[in-house]
Amino acid sequence: MYNYFGDKMNIYDFDNTIYEGDTGVDMVLYGLKKHPFKVIKCIILGLKLRKKYKSSNIGAVKEEFFAFLYQIKDLDKFIDSFIDSHIKNIKPWYKSQQKENDTIISASYDLWINPFCERLGIKNIICTKVDDKGKIIGENCKGEEKVKRFREEFPNAEVLESYSDSSTDIPMLLLAKKPFIVDGNKIKPYSEGSYFPIDE
Fold first, then answer.
1. Is the Cβ–Cβ distance between 162 and 173 less than 8 Å?
2. In what order do the strands lie in the sheet with 186-189?
3. Cβ contacts of residue 186 below 8 Å, gap of 6+?
4. Mind listing the pLDDT tens digit for each residue in 118-152?
């Protein structure tokens, strides 16, 4: 975690917002190429858990889907290789307006979001934390949890602009004076009842 205690900032979701695609999905697909048997086993178990829990325990489902990562001998090297091959997915519109005190707030794992942000020079990172065995620490960083975590890190920050592709991020969007919905490379102001590319 890197903190920059600026008074004013813009906040962004990561997947499908400043990144083209979903890093979690891309991580599984990348793992399938490198370690297919490990990943297939975790996918099968993860799908069984998702059927069992539906939406009541998304944390346990995520832990199972990504359990293959903690079976990889040199995980740091694997993560670096993944980022090398996917850093191109950062959207040009974000790079053109990036500021030093931007904050990323993501439900994805710190395992890969932190190094992605380090490559981009982003210092403020809030995401789902996991331990060295792949267990989620605290809560999955989604919905209202994003707002809670942000206010814990930056209690006095003034949010100028916020960006997301998902309706689950409405609480986060409403932190800003100017909230925006991201649909691919299109950006439009958010208002009540707005269309979201991902509506959960």
1. yes
2. 136-137, 124-130, 103-109, 8-12, 158-164, 178-183, 186-189
3. none
4. 999 999 999 999 999 999 999 999 999 999 999 99
Q: In which region does residue 125 sit, left (phi positive, over 0), alpha (psi from -120 to 50) or beta (all else)?
A: beta
Alpha carbons 141 and 108: distance in angstroms, whole number: 8
How far is CA 109 from each of CA 37, 154, 159, rounded to the nearest angstrom?
A: 22, 20, 23
Structural contact between residues 124 and 51, judged by C-beta atoms closer than 8 angstroms? no
Q: What's the predicted TM-score (pTM) here?
A: 0.93
pLDDT band at 87 (very low <50, low <70, confident <90, very high): very high
- Whole-angstrom distance, CA of residue 165 vs CA of residue 28: 21
Contact by Cβ (8 Å): 187, 93: yes
Kindly report, residue by residue over 153-189, the tens digit of the pLDDT: 999 999 999 999 999 999 999 999 999 999 999 999 9
Task: Note the Cα 50 to chain centre separation in Å.
Answer: 20
What are the φ/ψ torsions at residue 169 (nearest 5 degrees)? -95, 10
